[in-house]
Every structure is written in C-alpha cells, then in structure tokens.
Amino acid sequence: MSDLIKNTPKERLVNGILKENPTFVLMLGMCPTLAVTTSAINGIGMGLTTTVVLAASNLLISMLRNFIPDRVRMPAFIVVVASFVTIVQMLLEGFIPSLYSALGIYIPLIVVNCIILGRAEAYASKNPPIPSLFDGIGMGLGFTLSITCIGLVRELIGAGQIFGFQILPLADSASGKMGYEPITIFILAPGAFFVLAFLSALQNRFKLGAAKRGIDPSNPDSCGGACASCGNSMCKGKRG
Amino acid sequence: MKELLIIAIGSALVNNVVLSQFLGLCPFLGVSKKIETAAGMGGAVIFVITLSSFVTGLIYQFILVPTGLEYLQTIVFILIIAALVQFVEMFLKKSMPSLYQALGVYLPLITTNCAVLGVALLNVQKEYNLLQGTVNGFATAVGFTVSIVLMAGIREKIEYNDIPKSFQGFPIVLLTAGLMAIAFFGFSGLI
Predict the structure, then answer these.
(1) Which of A7, A168, B55, B85 is placed for a possible disulfide with A160 were both Cys, Cβ 3.0 to 4.6 Å?
(2) Closest-CA residue in chain A for B179?
(3) Cβ distance B81 to B60 under 8 Å?
(4) Residue B29 is nearest to which of A30, A75, A78, comparing CB atoms?
(5) Minimal Cβ distance to A200: which of B19, B82, B174
(6) How far apart are CA A156 and CA A163, in angstroms?
(7) What is the 3-state secondary structure (H, E, C) of A149-202?
C-alpha cells in the first residue's frame, strides 16, 4: 500500500476499509457493533447510516476547521454530529420506516459513536475537506463491512438465514423432517459477545502470524485504540 | 411504589444496560481491569446518570414539549449531558475534593458513555414521568456498576489463568461478557 500517495481519496478509502478498520483494528464504536448486528441487513443499515453521518460531519468540520476556536472544538463537533444524526433520523423515519424501527434507539446514539468524534478530532479537524470526506466514507464503509460480517455470522448460526433468506433448511419436528436447528442464543445478547470474541481472536492469530514472519503488526497511530482514548481527547479538548 | 420497583428491578437486572442493551460498552471493556477503578467508574456513572436523567426529563417535559421542539431531543440531550458532566466536575472540585479525588478521572470519560444518552432517550421513548425517569436512570446505573464490578473481579482472576495466545486480551474479556450475559438471563423470571 506504500505506492498510494498520502491523503488522496483512494488512499483514504483503502485506509478506512483495511488498514485502520474502525471495528477490528481501532476497536471503536462497540455499542452499535454488538447491538444491531442481529441480522446482516440491520448491520448494513446501521453501517450506511453511520457512513452518511460520518462523511457529512467530516466534510463540514473540515470546512469549518479554521473557524472553530480550539477551546470549544469538542462541543462544536458534537453539535455538528448531532444535527446530522437528527436529519438522518428524520429521513429514515420518513423513507425507510422498517429500518427506523429495527434500529430504534441506536440511531440517535450514533452521536456518541466514538468513530465519528474520533475521526473529527484525529483527521477532519486537521485536513482539507476533500480528503476528509473520503476519510469519512472509507471509515464508514470499513465499519459497514465489519458489522455486516458480524451480522452475517450471527444470522446464519442463529436463524439459518442470510439477508432474510433461509439458507439452511430448518428442522421440523412435527413432520419429522431433518434439518438445521437454529442456535437462538446467537441472535440474543450473549451471541454478540461470542461472535466478536472469536472474530477478534482470529484477527489476533493473524497478527501473531504476521509478527512471526517479521511484519510489524503495530497499530496505526491515529485514535490510539481503545474508546477511552477518545474520551481522553475529549476531556483534553474541553480543558484545553 | 410497586410500579417504581418494577422499573428499577427491570432496568438494573433484567434488561441490564451493558449485558443486554449494549450501552456503555466502552468503559465496561476499558476500565474493568481492577475492582477499585471499576467501582470508581460505577460510582461516577450512578451520580451522572441519575442527575442527567432528572435534568433531561425536566427540560424535555417543560421546554421541548410545550414548544413543540421534540425533534431536537438528540442535540439538546447531548449538550445537556456534556455541560452537566463539566459542571459536576467543577462543583466536586470546589466543594467535595475527596469525592473529586475518587471520581475525578472518570468524569470526563462519561460524556462519551452511550449509556447516559441512551437512558435519557429511553426515558422519552417509554414515556416515563420525571420520577419514573429518574428512578430508571438510577437503576440503570446501578446495573452498570454491578456488571462492571463483577467483570473486574473476574478479570483479576483471569490474570492468573493460562489463556490461548490468540484469546489473550480483548477476546477473553468478550467471552466472559457473553457468559455473564447468559447468567443475567436468569433474572428474566423476576418480573
């Protein structure tokens, strides 16, 4: 990936989807990741909603970056993000009511998604609008991709479906038909923890393998890694 | 009274905020390494959520509803919470330095805790009145504290265990959380 020039739209997209994937690499935005991934379609819906908010807020914050005083930048970012979330929420309610009711309270909670404030702080407030826009889109797509994956696994194991289609024929005890017995717990809350645990263990394994082969698996510098660092940057912003 | 008790048990144990609604996961995973820090975070969360669910309820019922501005709830709530956290921090620093010493480091982190905004929004969604909303907030925060302290206790023990290499760190914590979530299913018969 070294042949990509820094801060071009393409580099930003690749960066967001692969190198700094917000869910699997940066471990940001865990709440929606676990809460709405009961099915793949919910994952896509949540992911795209977040992408729209992220791209729009990154663009606006980047355009305003020279006008927002440093001391009040966090409240200013929050207002920008919250406004976009409200707009998106109204659009969803009007045009895709089924998704609106499926995601429920997690749509307004996009405001406190660490990915969005994290990117605003780490990238958009320091870079010109066009790369920021693509950074938002890339990060959003990376997020969409990973939560759709989690949703796929949970839906397949928990209900034998993919995108609502019955892939594994269900067993029917009444007629004695043999088939797949859905493990319902994977759609319930504990399943979310288990699937994410195994996915990140898998990722650890790849990292360990890469480290053995001499490739540096170190994390990218941007937002630190844990959500706590976002909180830290937040308090720095307020005190600073 | 009975109704309030049902709300309280429901949100503290049955619909535990972390383990079944996935709110406030970041601090749950981030500051649950030691029991003392977990308890400190829990205390700060109880304080802030109870206060914020009261204040947001007040502002929603007496300002937003009469003026027909309910659609601004997300923006207004998050600003109230951010301001409130800041205010609580300043107040504690001035008047109760000992409490500030104990909770201080956790307070700024709470603004990004989605449980705080989540409770405020849920109170509106479930159409709780001021008292019910405050009780719900307090109980939710107690549920958060219970689960984060339990988690910290388990994690302190996990330190001594022999865990497969790829499961060290984050994955084993998630697995533990999953098992705790199953255990909390046991409470669903309570109501």
Answers:
(1) A168
(2) A190
(3) no
(4) A30
(5) B174
(6) 9
(7) HHHHHHHHHHHCEECCEECCCECECCCCECCECCCHHHCCHHHHHHHHHHHHHH
Is B179 near chain A, with CB under 8 Å? Answer: yes
One DSSP character per residue, B78-122 reads HHHHHHHHHHHHHHHHHH-HHHHHHHGGGHHHHTT-HHHHHHHHH
Phi/psi at A47 (5° precision) = -60, -45
Q: What is the ipTM of this complex?
A: 0.84
Q: Which residues pair with A165 in a beta bridge?
A: A162
pLDDT, averaged across chain A: 80
* Beta carbons within 10 angstroms of residue A21's beta carbon: 22
- For residue B121, the chain A residues in CB contact (below 8 A) are 105, 108-109
Q: Give pTM, 2 decimals.
A: 0.83
Every domain of chain A and the residues it spans: 2-212
- Region A98-112: mean pLDDT is 88
Name the pLDDT band for A223 (thresholds 50, 70, 90).
very low
Chain A CB within 8 Å of residue B90 CB = no
Is residue A112 within 8 Å of residue A228, measured between CB atoms?
A: no
